[in-house]
Amino acid sequence: MAIDQDNKIFQLAESLVNESNRNIFLTGKAGTGKTTFLKHIRQHCIKQIAVTAPTGVAAINAGGATIHSFFQLPLSPFMPEARGFMQNDSMVNKHSLLGRMRLNNEKRKVLQQLELLIIDEISMVRCDTLDAIDTVLRHFRYRNSEPFGGVQVLFIGDMFQLPPIIPDNEWNLLRDFYSSPYFFDSQVMRQFPPVYIEFQKIYRQSDEKFIHLLNEVRHNNLSDAGMELLNSRYDPWFELSSNDGYIFLTTHNYKSDSTNAEELAKLRQKTFSFKAEVTGEFSDKAYPADEKLELKVGAQVMFVKNDKERVKRYFNGKIGTVTKIEDDAIFVQCKYEDDEIEVSKETWENVRYSVDKQTQQLEEEVIGKFVQYPLRLAWAITIHKSQGLTFDKAVIDAGRAFAPGQVYVALSRCTSLNGIVLKSQITPSGLQTDKKIIEFFGHSTTEESLQEQLYQSKKIYQQSLLLALYDFTATIKQCSALNKIVKDNKAAYNAELLLWLDEVEKALNALQTVADKFKLQLNKLFITDELPEENNAIQQRLHSAAGYFIKQLDELMETLKQSPASTDSKMHAKAYNDNLKEVFVLLAEKKYLLQSCIEDFSVNRYYSFKKDFVAPPFYVNAYATASEQKTETPHPDLHKKLRELRNKICEQKNLPIYYVANSATIDEMAFYLPQNLDEIVKIKGFGQAKAKQYGYLFLEVINEYCNEHNVTSSIAGKQSKKERKQKTETVKEDTKNVSYTLFREGNSVEEIAKLRNLAIGTIEGHLIFYIKRGMILIHELVEQEKIVSIQPHIEHFENGASITSIKEKLGDNISYSEIRMVLAAREWERTKGKTDKED
Predict the structure, then answer these.
(1) Name one GO biological process term (predicted).
(2) Does 338 reside within a domain?
(3) 78 and 157 share a domain?
(4) Which of 80, 155, 490, 794 has the smallest set of CB atoms within 10 Å of its CB?
(5) Are 111 and 362 in contact (CB under 8 A)?
(6) Distance CA 321, CA 281 (A)
């Protein structure tokens, strides 16, 4: 269905989406065009959009992602307040939710760039789920005082249809915080009610009597005349016959499955089986069609996808009969049509949202595909699966409707009353409609009211865009995060960097101080009734301010290009490079958007600039080979050669530098000049195993240098590891700490076990203790390939459970200890993430 150009409510809804930042609840009776509107917005909205839905099938049909996967929410109920909350795995609150989340930089960027979030089938979304979404967006967008962190949300659905599912035990936990399970009773919706828009014009039905009857069923106020009219369609003896075009709607899966199987078995034709092609990531719970489709000539089928051809031959829900089956096509004949439809396979895509690093625009990345004929057996279907479909003829068995709205969903699928047959009588008890929904729908908005709200919302939206232009919070937060990375690992970076980063952070804070003063001026100018786009005084202030801030941002960007960072760790260099580039891109994007104010500001101009932004090149590398580290050493040339050798080994074997020789090890070799294996094991970071593996390579460089410069070893003046060990033994030290000290001196697990006369498993247990505390990195003990193999199997592992099942899946190549080490690293990451957020 195309957008109805004469439908003013459609046009007002589109304007509110595009020209305001108001949250919108878009509803309407079945067949009023809600799905059409969603597709239109996806294709024509100027904002950065993500589409979500509560179930996998609904998400695939809407062309988006499930709510829980997009926001990485746990399945546990969310408690909106700490009051009465006891920490356990059966529920989460704000702190435990954020503490558990592990969003990578890409996912954080998606949330930060998001401007419009669409939630389809909102009737099935729980109140606590919406508050959890609100919590996540506020936190990761650094906008804690704004609902959904400043993201505009478009809720689409009909509350009179299928409700949210919430088990009694979970509702018992939540009822103290919510007056109902529905989304509109979430705390964020109570505090910030959305604009209410109801589509009135019905496109599915044209019979006024039937439309009136549906309206009575929808609002649970069925009159005696309506009940009589409805039950006039009651025929308990009606039998489906082959190819009569009727579909049987029932409340339970087993009924629809058994009906389809029985009817298919009656056909004396060859059975053809078509298996779907599933590639990439595609959950079986989100399959939009049968994974294994079994058909016979003569089978009644239903299309489960809209035709993508310009001349639409079929739609989602259209009924027909299979007339012919060939290798690469199925032919279906629909009643009252002259031509057969040749049906080919269709592709459904599972998407993930990402951000283009150059343009900073949200992109839909296809991560999985489901390819199958868009057909299913259609003698019967459940009412739940029929939501959103349209039928000319239906036999309805809703006498045992177990959920509010099921009867309405079933009846409203049909185009006319004459096409309905009731297998069971509808009773008043079957027309359940929650009083909460009736009460909520008393907020319906008139067209005149929407016109007024649109103007005021446009004004507020333009003001918010301008104020956001002069808000550098996200950049400051990113710079602070970078500063923390460096300070937490300051031994890995040069001392000069700390001072430089502090100066950059001070400059950003100073810029924000000036911006805050300018925002005060803007707020004074906003008092008029004019839209900012049409206010000359505001436009003049924007012209002059843009010039000033663009110059400041240019200077800051040049400063970032002069980064003095230097580290001999590729891992630390990458962390620094990536985070510094993120700061640079944020500044570059802000500068580019400010240029939209050099001439007259408008929303369209602003978004035109935003869409055209491309991140400028930024070349900074903190790795020591690109920027030599300064070091205090009597033999700088040797120090350089040793570093070069170490880097070469690491590059060839793809190892982090501490596997071979860290900075302290290089420093000691260049200072003490060991001449043989016995001497090199006295160097910090070298044990017997490492000396045998890499020692000769370093000794060759050292001996050559000593011969050239006529210098000799000074290792005799270095305190031996044995002497240090004896000293520590005079103090009663924790046995785990002894193992940790020996490990840091470069000894392998086997060497430590031999030195201490303890089992290897005992030593591994000691080191796991320090992995949990972040004092040993997992890569120091477990190979990267093994880490990658183990991680998917521990995603849902709970502490205290047995790891035997994990070990059985991974096989003999991976040990129990290696699994425990990866679990310990996960525990450290969770603890560290929680601490960071609390700080």
Answers:
(1) telomere maintenance
(2) yes
(3) yes
(4) 490
(5) no
(6) 33
Same domain, 743 and 713: no
Q: pLDDT tens digits for 132-161?
A: 999 999 999 888 889 999 999 999 988 877
The one-letter amino acid code at 346 reads E
Asked if 189 and 61 sit in the same domain, the reply is yes
Cα distance between residue 549 and residue 15, in whole Å: 31
User: Which has more confidence, 362 or 475?
Assistant: 475
Instruction: Report CA-CA distances (Å) from 781 to 524, 628, 736, 764, 777.
Output: 61, 29, 16, 9, 8
Which of 227-260 are b and which e, b meaning 16 or more Cβ less than 10 Å from the residue's Cβ? Answer: bebbeebbeeeeebeebebbbbbbbeeebbeebb
What pLDDT is recorded for position 480?
A: 92
Q: According to the model, what pLDDT value does residue 755 have?
A: 78
Q: Are 47 and 116 in contact (CB under 8 A)?
A: yes
Residue 647, number of CB atoms within 10 A of its CB: 18
Same domain membership, residue 700 and residue 738: no
* pLDDT over 70, % of the chain: 90
**Residue 213, in any domain of the structure:** no
Q: Are residues 263 and 160 in the same domain?
A: no
99-143 confidence digits (pLDDT tens): 777 777 788 889 999 999 999 999 899 999 999 999 999 999 888
732: confidence class by pLDDT, cuts 50, 70, 90: very low
Pair 20, 462: CB distance under 8 Å:
no
Q: What are phi and psi of 370, to 5 degrees?
A: -125, 115
Q: Kindly state the helix (H) or strand (E) to which residue 369 belongs, with its residue range.
A: strand 362-372
What are the beta bridge partners of residue 156? 26
CA angle 284, 286, 292 (to 5 degrees): 55
Angle, CA 508 vertex, CA 505 and CA 514 arms, to 5°: 145
Sheet of 375-377, strand order: 341-343, 330-333, 319-325, 300-303, 375-377
Co-location of 54 and 107 in the same domain: yes
Rounded to whole angstroms, the Cα distance separating 498 from 146 reads 34
Torsion of CA 761, 767, 772, 777, to 10 degrees: -120
Q: Pull the structure tokens for residue 586.
A: 């944020």
Coarse DSSP helix, strand, coil percentages of the chain, rounded to the nearest 5 percent: 50, 15, 35
For strands 362-372 and 346-355, give the pairing: antiparallel
Neighbouring residues of 527: CB distance < 8 A, sequence distance ≥ 6: none
Does residue 437 belong to any structural domain of this protein? no
Domain housing 48: 8-203
Q: How many structural domains does the chain have?
A: 5
**Same domain? 653 vs 793:** no
| 8 Å CB contact between 618 and 592 | no
CB 32 within 8 A of CB 45: no
